[in-house]
Amino acid sequence: MPPVSPVPPVAAAEEAWFELYDLRVEVVSPPGERILCGARVGDHFELRGEMLTLPPGQGISIYSLAAVLPLLAAKQRVTDPNDWMSTDAEVACPDPNCPTRLRIVRTGKRRFRHADTTVVPLPGLPR
Fold it and tell me: E strand or H helix at 17, and its extent?
């Protein structure tokens, strides 16, 4: 395996940015199956940056959310095409008797400035 090359230095804090994918997480289920988690096929939420939004009047089971939440930050990042995080997109409902899955879809990219997301300076840059 070739060595990982260091990240080139950033010229100025204004130029320090990164990209994240926007995500849509949607409930899917085999047709005709009984759903036990309170969801309906097509229920969804979206993640833009760190902001999770649900359509008005729609909820999500805290257990279903807990099953998918640890994967969302990784799914937002650019990954190698051969990485399972790039190819696997469905998370099973945590209830072993519920047939639903949460499908994670990358819907677009959004750019963020480092200085707008944290007070911690990048190494080698003035504060």
Answer: strand 17-28
